[in-house]
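Lecture 7 notes: from sequence to structure.

We start with a single chain of 599 residues. Read the sequence below before looking at the structure.
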Amino acid sequence: MALKDGNYTTALLSRTKKEMEDLLSDPKLLAEAKSHKDKIQASGGDVKDDDSDLMKVLGIIIRTCQCNDFPTPEAKATREKTNEIEGKLEQARNELSLGYSDADGIFQATSSVGLRSVMRTSSEEAVRKAAYESLRSIGDFVCEQGFLEIVKLRNRLAKILGFEDYYDYTVTNAEGFDKNKLFEILDGLEKGTRPLLVKAREDLEKMHGKKALDPWNTSYMMAGSVIKKMDPYFPFSKSVENYIRSYAAMKISYCGATMTLDLLDRKNKYSNGFCHWPVPAWVKPDGTWVPSKTNFTSLADPSAVGSGLTALNTLMHEAGHAAHFANIKQPSPLFSQERAPTSVAYAENQSMFLDSLVGDAAWRAKYARDLNASPIPFEVHEEEIRSTHPFQVFQLRAMLSVSYFEKALYELPEDELTPGKVQALADEIEIQIQGGLSARPLLSVPHLVSDEASCYYQGYTLAEMSVHQTREFFKNRDGYIVDNPSVGPTLAQAYWECGNSKAFLQIVHDLTGKELSGKAWVDALQEDMDEHIVQERKEYDAMIRRCANENQDEAIDLDMTVKFVDGDEIIFDSSESGLLGACKEFEEFVAARTAKASI
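Now the structure, written as tokens:
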């Protein structure tokens, strides 16, 4: 995280992770929990069903320990060796120097997020290509810095534990079904959307020429010019206030949580937004509520074109994770932690549903405003729809490609795990699933090398299926989502409070009344563009009329404390100035930082 405090080191992270895993893999703990549960069930006493707090706690202890069970010295040694190499690779990856040569030939250092932003917004093809090549270099780097040894060790561990490979092990622990079941679902989505992909690539080539299919050109050709038009209406300095107002209007509560936000990019900072919980929310046996403590980060560069929208999407996403985990009300913190047996799809469903609102016309009519409070013109929103709607299948296929690559990677024989073979495999999967090389090279995806996030990406795909199904539910029930005051309470009751005590597929069915499927997602991809624009216009105009009668000075209460930090430095604390006061101070801080950078 590039912190100055020397107490936060890779060695310390590896040590504390080992201590946690030692606890959760302790066979005595698992045996004791099973013994207590067996005695209670055998006694025939009052406490015997799964609804009792005691049985629920024993059950989650058993499930969590089983997900972390390394029953032999060989398994435990393999896991510890993997953790050691992972820590070294993560540190090396964070210190990797990335960048591109600008139009004047001057090297500009930036993060992987910054490189992708350049590819979306630079009008110079040579600059976009330089950014792409820098992204692609990440793959060579990680393969030479221990990633392939990590893959071998992960597979050895999985086979020791009786699984086909590490992908099968991870999916089974997190989702409760095996790799074969997962790819029955993903194969159906892949086959069902392949014709949409072929047509989208053909249409893009007809509109912009064959060069538009080059990976460094695709994002820019779809929306590069409109991103620049949109940029003034997504000032990063206002992003926190807009997120807070939006969540408050939906009556989302953080139940007394404390949230620390580290949003600005800096050299050697971890190359992806994330959210984690030093203190999970839970209810003690005496009924005392323990609110969560959350840290989350993004990589915002306020001076870069398009960074405001990118940072806002990350903020809405990670804040969704924070809201979800703040609302889990179960009798053990094991129900509200992000590792297995918590479903990846369950965790991502909440955040992806909430960040999806940023693309809605109604949301933009109210919250996408320039520094003079003028709303984004609908014509600009319409231009983005016309630029991107025919090609939204690209996002679906990009998500699928990560899962298909990891599946193929962990199925490779050990003697084929060479840098050249793995890079060729990544290219092959990109071409097979996305139709050509990807604007985000597979080996640049940070999830692959991280223990907690490896074999994780299928969760995004399953979650996106659920997002569209959940959006459909709210539209059918209430007629709208943005600023709908029933959204927060409904999500809290149906999705959040249960934590991992219920299976992901069950909670989706319980709310929507339907089995999880990709139908709502595919329907959205196939929606007639002109009809979609007409509906968006109605929702935009309706929100503009509502905004004319609203009082923006009303106090906002999300029942949380927010601390803004920049690395080790605490910038502002809402416990001292209130939520909106802290947002105003953050806005001034960002403005000063941007002005300084432009000198």
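The chain is about 60% helix and 5% strand. Keep this in mind for problem set 3.
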